[in-house]
Design goal:
Blueprint (H helix, E strand, L loop, with lengths): L11 H6 L6 H5 L3 E3 L5 E3 L1 E2 L1 H14 L6 E7 L5 E9 L2 E5 L14 E8 L4 E6 L2 E2 L1 E2 L15 H18 L3 E7 L3 H5 L4 H4 L1 E2 L1 E2 L7 E2 L7 H10 L4 E4 L2 H10 L4 E4 L4 H7 L4 E5 L1 H8 L12 H4 L5 H15 L3 E6 L5 E4 L2
Parallel strand pairs: 8-11, 9-13, 15-16, 15-17, 17-18
Antiparallel strand pairs: 1-2, 3-14, 4-5, 5-6, 6-7, 7-11, 10-12, 18-19
């Protein structure tokens, strides 16, 4: 049985250990994950998915007495149905954290207001409670809303679907998160230069009930992989690892780099974006740089010297691990000799 979100092949022993085989269908559909013990953990929905549901419901409620649920197609391609509360152009959706107990945004209300536009076209307006960037970064300008590209695409697609369904010529949708600024103080946003609200994110549209549910399976894959492996920390890293090293099995290990390295027999490649990799190599890598994130550091003149120094130190500890660091476009920006 394969996870359609991560492409992880669940070991047969995990499936056999499941005491509730009737809920394995949720695992097959990507709505939940199976653990080594046989327990099933429900995935939550990202802030981007929640925002998309609220916006779609607000538009649909312009033509319906009330809207109680909407379908949202996630960035990973899976379509899910979310409960909403929509009435006469206003809709709300509560963020479902699934079985991810430490998700500080769980239960947060997202509110969308929709109004027909006589001039035609679709306008999406981020409002109160959505963070903005306090300064320019390599990918964002100061003042821009903290909404990732996959999340924004999901929101816009959901609005467009609703507009087409009720045959509107145009609409303006305003999204707010009433407690966004308050909850943001419990996130990393203040430390990475996002102010006055939370970020609206979602690479897949789901929130994983991490951290340990696939570690055993990942370690097993590392030890069994023929011809060496490529270890990577995220989904973009996984994509570029497969493109750069097509003859090796690419394995997503997230923040479990230490466990993964201990499982490696022979040589391996560590490939991915700079954030988690440099932070693993040196948790204090940003000290004295004036940068809030490793990505920001990678766009400064300090990057080449810093990356080379940290990679050299890493190789002294892990001589069998080759390092290849890429940016978001797939360009190699750091590499061990």
């Amino acid at each position: 049985m394969r996870d359609p979100v991560t492409d992880f092949e669940y070991p047969a022993a995990w499936v056999a250990a499941c005491r509730s085989p009737d809920i394995l269908d949720d695992v097959r559909r990507g709505l939940a994950v199976l653990t080594a013990s046989g327990a099933v953990l429900r995935r939550g929905f990202s802030t981007g998915t929640t925002a998309a549901a609220a916006c779609k419901a607000a538009v649909l409620s312009l033509a319906c007495e009330s809207v109680r649920e909407v379908d949202v197609t996630l960035p990973c391609g899976i379509t899910v149905r979310l409960p909403v509360d929509g009435y006469r152009g206003r809709a709300s959706c509560l963020k479902d954290a699934g079985d991810y107990d430490t998700d500080v945004t769980g239960g947060l209300e997202f509110v969308a207001m929709a109004a027909p536009s006589l001039s035609g076209g679709v306008q999406f307006v981020p409002g109160e409670g959505i963070g903005s960037f306090a300064r320019d970064t390599p990918r964002h300008r100061q003042g821009a809303p903290a909404i990732s590209a996959p999340a924004l695409a999901c929101i816009r697609r959901s609005i467009d679907e609703a507009v087409a369904e009720i045959d509107l010529s145009g609409v303006t949708v305003i999204l707010t998160i009433p407690r966004g600024a308050e909850v943001a103080q419990k996130t990393l946003n203040p430390r990475i230069g996002v102010q006055a609200g939370i970020s609206v994110l979602g690479t897949t549209g789901f929130v994983e009930p991490w951290d340990d549910h696939v570690v055993d399976g990942v370690i097993d894959r590392i030890t069994r992989a023929p011809g060496g492996v490529v270890l990577t920390t995220g989904r973009l890293g996984l994509r570029y690892s497969r493109l750069l090293f097509p003859d090796r099995e690419a394995i997503l290990v997230g923040n479990k780099l230490g466990e993964a390295f201990r499982a490696v027999e022979g040589d391996a490649i560590l490939c991915g974006l700079p954030g988690l990799i440099l932070k693993f190599m040196n948790p204090d890598v940003l000290v004295g740089t004036g940068c809030a994130t490793v990505e920001e550091l990678s766009a400064t003149p300090l990057w080449e010297e810093t990356a080379s120094r940290e990679i050299r130190a890493f190789r002294r500890c892990y001589p069998g691990i080759r390092v290849v660091i890429v940016d978001r476009s797939g360009r190699v920006i750091g590499e061990s000799s």
